[in-house]
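Final paragraph of the annual report: two paired records, presented back to back.
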Amino acid sequence: MSASKISLDSPASAIKVQLPASVNGFSSITIRPLALVDAPKILAGVEESLSELKRFIAWSYFPQSIESQKSRIISRIHSYWTMKDFAFNVVDSDSDAFIGASGLHARTLHSKGLEIGYWIRSSLAGNGLATVITKALIVYGFDYLKLNRVQCCYNTLNTRSARVAEKCGFKVEGILKNFEPPPTQEMIQSGWQSSSEMIISALYPESIDHLDWYQDFQKRITVYDWLGQPVI
């Protein structure tokens, strides 16, 4: 018997996803909280992807080093297990190779609402992995965390994020003007491409019946409790 039920007060230690045949190169991925041993792998993935990340992601302009990653990971681990914010690494289930990162973030006013974020290292981008990760976290959010709202927010010029949101069935609610801090001159000179407008979209429990992929992904994911036991 599982040690605990999954909830916002007792989040999962891992979510394993059996991948559709359309996603090449992997049979399954694991979405799990960060660990200190991840620091070198994350740093390598970030450095490989900086040219893409610097188009839309402000944190990619921060100093990147093993020490900065360790500090960030410690903070993320604390936030995860104190149920303040849920940051994940995404890895190959077989090799633990770093694929990218995702999260369910407390950026809504609703106590049972969270925002999905994601990025995939450049060498693996365009392979459908961001869509798979997002669908898995939508199911986890509604079925296990009992959320009332899962939202996705992306820049109007970020066409890749727009495609992920569309494939997952998010419904556009509006455009947020000047929602995030403006870029510095250094960012603009280093490849920043974001506009001043963000698109906000969301799903709700009543959306589930209209998502043709949802039941398939309910079968694809296995959720593990804080002791590493599968939740049945």
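The closing record of the year follows.
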Amino acid sequence: MNKKYKKLAVAFSGPSNSGKTTLVVKVSNILQDSGYKVCIVKHDPKDKAVFDRPGKDSNKFTQTGADVAVVSSSRTTLFKRHNSSIEEIIELFGEFDYLLVEGLKTLPLPRISIFRKRLDESYFGVTDAIAHDNTINEEDIPSNIDKLDLNNSEEIIKWIEKNAKRV
């Protein structure tokens, strides 16, 4: 039986400590518990994420400047020395149902921005929906932007189903 994958993509944005990662994890877990294959892309704008330990062979290989793939029975880790386009990443992931992107505000994907305590209007131009908690006054959100309850993951998933982009 060949499974037909949905290949739907949506992005999440918001200021630091707004709850982006928490929401992406919740949505991913619910979707995976429902039998869907989920892939996640995390933007690292300050280039501070570290995935290898000094002294390990894989770290020694990456220190040469080469692109390196580390393959085990349960995973493949790819260390590339240049940025990848979203199209290249999608190709690497292969088949999936949902691609959840955290950050990368310039990507042309339907986008949920997350806010707690205060809105940041600089996100409004790239935002299709705002997920917020009760510290945000909904009347301050422009009428052309959908309003979602940050604490209602099912509501957010329904929005994703309706609005995500097929890639």
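DSSP finds four helices and nine strands in the chain. This concludes the annual technical report; the extension proposal builds directly on these records.
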